[in-house]
Design brief:
InterPro entries: Acetolactate_synth/TF_NikR_C, ACT-like_dom_sf, FeFe-hyd_TM1266. The chain is α+β, with helices and mostly antiparallel strands and 81 residues long. The protein has one domain: 2-Layer Sandwich (Alpha-Beta Plaits), CATH 3.30.70.1150. Helix content is 27%, strand content 46%. It has two helices and four strands. It has a four-stranded antiparallel β-sheet with strand order 2-3-1-4, covered by helices on one side. Strand 2 and strand 3 form a beta hairpin. The mean pLDDT is 94.
Length: 81
């Protein structure tokens, strides 16, 4: 199965769900190229970018699990191939 490069953008509004998010990301760690988190203290949110290289179905499963967490908004952007 061909892999794709994608960026998952996450905005975390509830810091109480960080552990749940980290558990999910750990499950998919073999596909993660890197991640960066930025706390935006003025708005009390955290902005997280996760770069992945994985088959499309894996990316969809990962983003779906992340999107179902209450207090999180997420979107996926795929690299042009």
């Amino acid at each position: 199965m061909d892999s794709r490069v994608a960026l998952i953008s996450i905005i975390l509004k509830d810091s109480g769900v960080v552990e749940e998010l980290n558990d999910i990301l750990h499950q998919y760690s073999q596909y993660i190229i890197g991640r960066m988190g930025i706390p935006y203290r003025e708005k009390n949110i955290h902005i997280i970018s996760v770069a992945v290289d994985a088959p499309s179905d894996v990316i969809n499963a990962l983003s779906g699990k992340i999107g179902r967490i209450s207090g999180i908004s997420s979107k996926v952007a795929y690299a042009n191939e």
